[in-house]
Amino acid sequence: MNTSVNWSFMLNKSAVSTSENNFFNAIVFLDAMSCVFLVFGNFFILSLIRKKRLLGRSTNVFIFSIAVADFLNGLIAIPTHIMFLYHRETIYLCKCFRFVSYLTKTVVPYTIVFMTAEKTMRILCPTREIVTVARCMFCTSLLWFFSSSFNIWSVVLFTAVPIISPQNESSTERTYKRCVFNQRFLSLHSFFLLMDLFILFLVPCTVVLVLFLVLVFKYFTILRERILTYFFVVKLLLALSINVLITHAPYQVMTFLENSPHVQSTERFLLSNLLTSVFFTRGIWNLVIYGYFKHYVCQKQNLASIRAGNCPPKTESFRLPLHRSRPSNARQNMM
Question: d(Cα 68, Cα 45) in Å, to the nearest integer?
Fold first, then answer.
């Protein structure tokens, strides 16, 4: 016996307005567009880092981690979300969609936390190499392991609700489906929702905010010139942090609403899927940010040449003049 709550919404087609159908199609189109941009855009970023062997810089290690997370969203999470919307759902699609989305929702904020902490330590301790590239790689690998282990609860708790089939073939009813908490674990819902909000959203946002406040405070001290040297990188971190905040905050709020035990409505269902699609657009905005900071992202440029937001000058290659080698002494004696 299936004890999960039936979130299916049976609506008569005559009652479904054209605006709702257009809204539903717009969500699917936004998901499809995000899927294409994330797969091809992040595949280009990953290929560029691998081809040029750019993992020798700590920033590129973190960019590589974020690009992998966005690539997984485009390759797995978004297609399963689209199939789920079109009633291709199985319990495996539901669990796969939730696990990958929660995995990337953990990796990206904490990667920005590590990236901000690394740059802050470089600014505050310029004479000591506290965070090396090898340590950044180790922290990134540990982060992926932690994210995979921590979010395994989403595979257990979420389940797909079976479709309520029409009573006869001539029925004109339309079914909306959801991937929600299994009611067999009703006592764990509040705990995991609060843990998800606290660990995956509040903690990384608070840590990044504290680190930025430290940089602002140190700006008015003797480290001002040092901070100006890294100002271009600080703007990159600020852009990535704002992107995560804007795309994750509505998704976190909707996670509580869509899993509440109250009666659900079609409007809330459409709003939930819209905010999920907005959450997936985070990868598109990351690609835009990479393009704007192209003089620093995926480059081997020395950071000392970047000052106060000015782009580093393009290096020019000069051809060395050819010099004829002088004849040896033995040859001169023979002549």
Answer: 9
> pTM of the entire structure?
0.79
∠ Cα 173 33 31 (to 5°): 40
CB burial readout 162-173, b (16+ within 10 A) else e: eeeeeeeeeeee
Strand partners, 270: none
The amino acid at 224 = R
Q: Tell me the one-letter amino acid at 319.
A: R
Residue whose structure tokens are 């700006």: 219
Amino acid 177: pLDDT:
63
Q: Encode pLDDT of 282-307 as tens digits.
A: 999 999 999 888 877 766 654 444 44
- With contact defined as beta carbons under 8 Å apart, do 156 and 185 qualify? yes
Distance between CA 146 and CA 247 in Å, rounded? 22
Read out DSSP for 231-255?
HHHHHHHHHHHHHHHHHHHHHHHHH
Rounded Cα distance, 179 and 182, in Å: 9
Instruction: Report the C-alpha gap between 31 and 84 in whole angstroms.
Output: 12
Rounded to whole angstroms, the Cα distance separating 302 from 233 reads 12
Give the span between the Cα atoms of 274 and 30, in whole angstroms: 9
| Highest mean predicted confidence (pLDDT) among 10-19, 97-106, 313-322 | 97-106
Q: Let me know: does 77 contact 280? Beta carbons within 8 Å.
A: yes
Note the pLDDT of residue 90: 73
